[in-house]
Amino acid sequence: MCELTALQQKFSCGCGEMDLRFWEPLAKHTSFRIGGGAEIMAFPKTPEELYQLLKLSNLLDCNPAILGAGTNVLAPDEGMNGLVICLKDCLNGMKQLDETHLQVMAGVTMARAAVFAAGLGLGGMEFAHGIPGTVGGGVYMNAGAYGGELGQIVDQVEIMDDSGNIHCLSREEMHFSYRHSRLEEESAIVLNATFALTPKPEAEIRAVMKELMGKRTASQPLDLPSAGSAFKRPVGGYAAALIDEAGLRGYRVGGAAISEKHTGFAVNLGDATARDVRNLLEQVSNIVYERSGVRLEPEVRIW
Q1: Which of 18, 163, 234, 257 gives a 20 to 30 Å CA spacing to 145?
Q2: pLDDT digits over 59-117, tens only?
Q3: Which among 179, 226, 259, 278 is annotated as catalytic?
Q4: Is position 185 annotated as part of the catalytic site?
Q5: Nearest to 66 by CA among 85, 41, 44
Q6: What is 94-204's CATH number, 1.10.1200.10, 3.30.465.10, 3.10.20.30, 3.40.50.2030?
C-alpha cells in the first residue's frame, strides 16, 4: 500500500467519514475516458460536507478543482495533485416547488432532471434530455442543444463561494450568454438551480424528447468516448461545417480523431492520451484558420 502524502493525511483526518479516494483515476470520471490519478477525490453528499471540504481547503491553501459528470473535461495524463471535488450523484435530489417551478440539486444529471419534469407534466427541458453532464455543470457553462439553453429556463441559482457562504442569484444576475455564465469568472460552486417551466401534456413532452434523442443518435458518435462538441460555435457559422470544409473529417493525432460521423466531435478511438487530444484540437484550429480565417476555440475544458 502506498504511503499517504501529507495532504492526503490532513484531509483524511479532517473529513471524518466523508467519501475520500486517493489517486482515483480521472479516466473513470470523464467521458473522454482519459486522465491519471487525482491525489484526493472527494464526494460530498450534502452542502455541509462541501462546506467542510472548502473550509479545510482554505486552511491548507489548496485550491480544489470541481468536477460534475466530466462530460466537458480533458484531464491530464499524469493526473493531478491536490483536491478534486466530484458532485455527480452526490448533491442529489429534485422537488417541485409550485405549479411551474422545479428545484434540482447540482449533482443530478440533466437527463434525469428532464425526465422528472416530463413526469410532472412540465415542459421546457426537452432539449436538455440528451445533453450529457450534471445540472451544476450545465448551469455553470449554460449548456444547450437544439435551440435551447439552460439560461433560458433558469429562475435562480443557489451557489456556495470558496469561503462556504451561500448566495442566491437570479437569472439576470447569472449573466448567461453562449456557453457562459458569470460563475466562470468567480470561485463558486452551484448547489442547486430552480427552473421555470411550462405545464404541458406529458405525452407531448416525451414525444419531443424522443424526437431529439433520435436526431442525436443518428448524427453523433455516441459509441465512442468524447466530450461532446469539441469547439464553440463561431460567430456566423458552425464549427463542424468549417472543419468538414477544411477536409478534416477523420483527421487523426495518435489515438484521438475528428469523428467520421460528426466533424464537431473529437473522439477517443480507444487509446488516446490527453496530449493526443490537445494536439488534435490545436492542429484542427490552426488548419481551419488557415483555410477560412476563422479561429475555432475549444469548448472542452482542458485541465
Answers
A1: 257
A2: 999 999 999 999 999 999 999 999 999 999 899 999 999 999 999 999 999 999 999 99
A3: 179
A4: no
A5: 85
A6: 3.30.465.10
